[in-house]
Write a structure and sequence with these properties.
Elements: E1 2-7, E2 13-19, E3 22-29, H1 35-49, E4 59-63, H2 69-86, E5 90-93, H3 95-101, E6 109-117, E7 120-131, E8 134-147, H4 148-158, E9 162-165, H5 169-179, E10 184-186, H6 196-208, H7 227-235
Parallel strand pairs: 1-4, 4-5, 6-9, 9-10
Antiparallel strand pairs: 1-2, 2-3, 6-7, 7-8
Helix pairs in contact: 1-2, 3-6, 4-5
């Protein structure tokens, strides 16, 4: 089973190819370029370096949100186009689930956070449970957009060791350090941002579970309205 994974949900642009339980290649860039400039060239370069015929893919997995509205649109549009051109199924992977998957096997509670502005974060809570000599990711709190204060209070109530990761960490690290009463840590640099290999690996799990869809039906999970939509609703007096 060969899966192409793509993540452009944040500042990071990342593409990867997995085959069964092997990572064949991954290309990740966290630099000041737009995903529209980098994503397709990265896919093309990785395919060339792997001598990969894209027609041999079984599916294409993509981070479907939440995250940067523009980044998500670029990533999902890219996958839609490739899925239609190659006649391949696609797999929409929740961004926070894929981020948590970076820390596969972690005994701590895992808390990915992405900066959603206005003192809010996109987040979720996950733990890895070992069943029959194999870890399984369990969702404790489904991905959502909430205030950083509300999130920290939830974690305080759990009282469990927790590991934070994601682009929200540099923004809210001081707040977490000052207000967390539960033991906490922060993931290292090699694991703390979006990785297409995690999208592809989790996509492989979904593929086995039959959670694929056509390119036409792929939808982005924004979790909340865009700033323009919020401002329009405010002008119109809507909630």
């Amino acid at each position: 089973m060969k899966i192409l994974g793509i993540d452009s949900s944040g500042l990071v642009a990342s593409v990867a190819v997995t085959e069964d339980d092997n990572l064949l290649g991954e290309y990740t860039v966290n630099y000041e370029k737009t995903h529209s400039e980098t994503l397709l060239p990265m896919v093309d370069d990785l395919a060339k370096r792997l001598s990969l015929d894209l027609n041999t893919l079984d599916a294409i997995a993509v981070s479907k949100g939440p995250g940067s509205f523009t980044g998500l649109r670029i990533g999902c549009a890219t996958v839609k186009g490739m899925g239609l051109a190659l006649n391949k199924p696609v797999i929409g992977v929740p961004t926070l689930d894929a981020l948590a998957y970076n820390l596969w096997g972690m005994t701590n509670l895992v808390c990915p956070i992405m900066d959603a502005r206005r003192d809010q974060v996109y987040t979720g809570l996950y733990r890895f449970v070992k069943l029959k000599d194999e870890f399984h990711m369990e969702t404790v709190l489904m991905q959502c957009a909430i205030g950083i204060d509300e999130l920290v209070e939830k974690i305080n109530r759990f009282g469990s060791d927790v590991t934070f990761l994601g682009d929200g960490v540099p923004v809210y690290e001081d707040y977490i350090r000052k207000n967390s009463r539960a033991p906490f840590s922060f993931a290292p640099a090699n694991l703390n941002k979006q990785r297409a290999s995690s999208v592809a690996a989790l996509g492989g799990v979904y593929f086995k579970e039959g959670k694929t869809e056509s390119a036409d039906s792929l939808k982005i999970d924004y979790l909340r309205l865009s700033q323009a939509e919020r401002e329009r609703n405010e002008r119109e007096g809507k909630e």
